[in-house]
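[audit] Reproducing an earlier prediction to check determinism. Same input, same settings, fresh worker. If the C-alpha cells differ from the archived copy the diff job will pick it up downstream; this log only records the rerun itself.
[audit] input (799 residues):
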Amino acid sequence: MRKARHKSWLLGSVAMGAVLSLSMGHQAAAQAVNAGSVSASGSNAAPGATAAPTQTKVFKSGQTVRVLDKQLIQQAGPTGGIARALSYAPGVNINTYGNTGSTKATITLNGVTQGWGGYSGYTQDGAVAVTFDGVPIADVVTGLWQSPTVPQNDLIQNTNVIYGPGNPVDRWYNNIAGEFQLVPLQPTDKAGGDLNLSYGSYGQENLSFDVRSGLYHGWSTIFAGGFGQADSFRKAPDGFTNPSHNYAFYAKTIKTFSAGSFELGGYIAQSRGYRAQVIPVSANPLITVNGQTAPNAAGLSFPVPGPLYSQQTSGYYSSLPYNTYSKYDGNQLYMVYGRETINLDDASTLHNLTFFTRIDRLHSRLNDLFAQGPQVDEHNNPFTYSFGDKIDLTEQFAYNTVDIGGYYIHSVYNSRNNFYNPLAPYFGNPDVINQNGKARSSYFNQDNVSAFLQDDFSPVSILHITPGIRVEQFSVNYSPETLQDFNLAPGAAGNFKNQSAGPAAHQSRTGLAPSIDANLQVLPQLALYGSYSEEWKSPQLGGGGGFFQSTHQPGSGYQLEFGQEYQIGFKGHIDHFGVFNHLLFGANYYHLRYSKQSIPVTNAFGNTVIASGTSEYNGVNMFVDDNPVYNLHVSANANFESAKYTSYNVNGNDYSGSPVSYVPQTLVNASVYYDIPVGQLLITPKAWVQYTGTQSIFNDVTSAPSRQKMPSFSTFNLSLKTTVPVDLPYAGDKTVDFTLTALNVLNNKYESYEVNSAGGYFNTAAQSATGQTNAPYANYLMAYPGAPFSIFGTVSVHF
C-alpha cells in the first residue's frame, strides 16, 4: 500500500505537469524561450573543474573518442546505472541480470570484456580501463571493475569512451581495448543544487541530490548523493522478488589560485541485492522449482517433485523460491584523491594525482537445494586496496606539446572464499572450513610502475602527429594463507580442496609499448585520422585458480598479455551551415590483436580452468550528432564487428578459428528529441531505439566458444519531459521538471544471455548416475531474460 501511494503521487505529479503544459499554452512565446534557457545547473563549471571534451577537441584528436552527455546517460532510465548508460556508445554492449544500478553487469567494448556479471563464457579479463574523475577504479590485480560501484547516474556529468589504448599520458594498467572515463558532477561558479525523485515499475525508487557552493575566495565545492531500491522483474512462485538497494555519495572541492588549482575529492558507494538465477529455456524433468533431495547413502540426489523450472513452464520471467536457491551479492568502493595543477611558467604545467581506493565484494550463496553437500553454501568476501601517485609535466614549444611522467601503484588483493555446509556432519560456517569443503585465501601484493613520454607535433594548425612510448612493469608477491585465515571443523584437516595451492612466489615482468596517432584536416570541416598502439597488462589473478594459486599454473609461468591495435577513419564537424548545427560525425575501422591471453573458465564442477589464446577483432564504429534546427537533436551510433580466436587451447583441445563468444555482429542505437515551447513551459518528447545483433554463445560442456548463435533483439523507448519555471523563496527563478520514461515500450521478450550448460549449475550432470532417462543431463540452453516494459515518473527540482 505504501508503494502504491508513492507511485500514485509521483506519477500523478508527472501527469499534472503534462496538464499544466496544455493549460498554459496561450502564454507568450518569448516567455517560453526564457524558460527554456534555464539550464539544470544554472551555472558554469568552476575554474579547474573536469570538463567534457568539446566537439572541436574530439574532431582534432588522433584517437576515436565518444562523449555521452546527460541526455544520452538519461536514456538508461532513472535507476538504470552507469553500465546501461555506456551501452549508448558505439561498440559497447552490456549484459546484466537486473534492472537497476545495484546489479552487476558484464560490458564489452569492441568485443573485449570489462566487469563480472557472473556469466560463463566471457573470455577476457578486464582489458578495458575505468576511471572516476581521472582515478582508476578497476581492481588493479584482477583488472575487473564492478559496475554496481557507480549505481547513481544522476551523479555523473558525462562519460567519455576512448577506443583503443589511447595516448600514453592518459593510460592506466589495463587499457588494451580502451577506457571508460566516468566524470562526476563538478563544482560550479554559482551556488545551486538539484533534487530528483523517481518511482517506477517493480517498486523502483530513487532519490538523488547535489548541492554546490559556488565560488568563494577561490574555493568551490560540490556534495552529491543518491539512494535507490527495487525489486527485480523476475519473481519466484513463493513471491520472492530478488530485491536490491544502493547508495552513493561524492564530494569535491577545488581551490584556484594564480598559478593553478588544487582539488580534493572523495567517493563511497555500496550496492547489494539478491541475484536471480539463469533459467532453462525449455523444460527439463531434472529441474523443478523445489530443487533436489539431499544425497542418499550412495551419494545420489533426485529431483524433488514440483513444477518444472523453465521459461516454458514456470514462466518467462520466473525465478526460484528463496528457500530453493538464493544468492546475495554486494559491492563496495571507497576512494579519496587529491589533484594539483601548477603552472610553473607560461609554457610549463605540472600535474599530480594521488589516490587511495578500497574495493570490497560480498558474494553469499545462502541456499542451494540443487547441490546439497559439503559445499552447499558460499561466502566470498575478497577485498583490494590500492595507493597510487601519478605525476607528469607538460611543456609547450612552438610546434610541440611534450608530456613526460609516470605513476606508481601499490595494491594488496585477498581472494578469500569458503564453500561450506553448516549442518551436521560438516559444521562449517563462513570462517570455518568443513570436511570436503573448498576454500582459498591468497594475498597478491602487486606493484605497477609506468613511465611515459609523448610529443604532440603540430608543424601547421591542420596537422597533429603524436608519437609516444610507455614502459610498464608489474611485480607480484604471492602468499597462500588459507590455513592462517580460516579455522578447521573436525575432520577437515587434509580433507578439503585448498584453491590457494601454489607456494609463495615473486615474479616481475616488463613491457615496452610504442604508439603514434595523427590527425589531418583535409578541409576545415573534415579530418582524416589514424593510430597504432601497443599495450601490456597483467593477466587476471585470484578467483578460483590461475597463476600462482594453481599448481598447474605456477608463478614462473606468469606472463603479461599483449594488445596491438590500429585504427583509421574520418571525422566531420560543422557548426552552422544550413541544417547542420553543431554537427559531429565520424567513422573508423579498427583491428585489435589480443595475444598471450590467459582465459579463466569456470567448469561444471565450479573449478577454474585456464585456457590460452589469441583473439582478433575487426570492425567499424560510426557516430553522428546534430541539431538540424535549434530545438531538434538527433544522435546515432553503430558498430559492425567480427571477432575470432586465431588460437584457443583448453584441456589439451584446440578450438582455433572459433568466434569470440558474446560479441554481437551489429550494435545500433539512435535517439531524437524536440524542445517545444508552450507558453512558459518547455515540453520535450524523446524517442530512442537500441538494437543488438546475433552473437555466438559459449559451450560450458567443452569450456570453449561455439558457433551456436543467440537471436538478435531490440527495444523501443519513449520519454516526455515538461520543464516548468517557478519562483522559489530566496532563490529566484528556477525550474521543476516532470518526466515520464517508458523503456521497452513494445514489451519485447528477448534473451540478453544464453549459454550451453554442462549440467553443473543445477547439478543435472550428477543425475546421470541415477539412471533416469528422457532427461538432458547437459548440453541444454540456459538464459537470462532481458527486462520487460517498465515506466517511471521523475520529479526534478533545480535551484
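[audit] rerun output stored. Observation attached for the diff report: The longest helix spans residues 2-23.
[audit] end
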